[in-house]
Amino acid sequence: MGFADALAVAMAVDSVLGWPDALFVRFGHPVTWLGRLITALDARCNRETDPPLQRRAIGVAAAGAVIALAAGVGWAVQSAIDASWARLVLVGIIAWPLLALRSLYDHVAAVAQPLKAGDLDAARLAVAKIVGRDPALLDKAGVARAAIESLAENASDGVVAPVLWGALFGLPGIFSYKAVNTLDSMIGHRTARHQSFGWAAARIDDIVNLIPARLTGLLFALVAARRSEAMSCMMRDAGQHRSINAGWPEAAMAGALGVRLSGPRAYHGRLAEEPWLNRDARDPGALDVALGLEIYVRAMIVLTGLLVIVALA
Prior knowledge:
Order of helices and strands: HHHHHHHHHHHHHEEEEH
Strand order of the largest sheet: 1-4
Strand content: under 5%
Oligomer: single chain
Number of strands: 4
Largest sheet: 2 strands, antiparallel
Low-confidence stretches: none
Shape: globular
Helix content: over 70%
Number of domains: 1
Distance between the termini: 10 Å
Number of helices: 14
Mean pLDDT: 93
């Protein structure tokens, strides 16, 4: 992991600064830049008059082009950096915006605070920013469950995965991963429009998140007070989740907190019958969201420490 030191720098910077609003207003964000490219390709290439196999083939080409472009930009930028101490700092700073370490904490904390104060309406508004389910149908337990699930899943997608691929391959690795993840979030859906065109995006995202999702679950179990419960719940229930990856960190968090997660939920007025993780446990509350954030912080500290150890070794 030749870039572990640079990714430790990126994590440290992001934990302190996040991505400031002033920078977002002035420059946007790398993910929004990718999003504009993907939106343009979707509008231009994903023609509803084309047969499904043709739309799938075009979707494969579009996903490959976006990922190759991201990897190429990463390689070009990294190649331009002198192989000295500047590499550590510059690669870390360039990788910093591609982590969601601070942003994820802030968004989930914004749910925990009004929920703890008993302001369900404000908690619903906050959780609607991080999940796709209908917030008006969520009671207190539903809001808490949605926030904890988002925290667990996005710890993998938004932090551990980009850190892992960045530590292994530097800027080409982290740039490529963010391209894959953005493609999946925008077109990797099982809808009439994207079932075929987004097929490749969804499959590639599944593959690149196989290791990070399981590593995230292990980190949660390692730092939890209920370590054995977290590990046993992860091993028992992760495979029941509709996602081959998200179930690992979510099941580990369910066991760590002693609550049940997932289960039936409504999306755009339609009920999705999802299986429970840690079925026989109690429903979560505001304090569990706060405790989940503590577990998340400890896990990220351990991850940063591992990067430093690898760099020194």
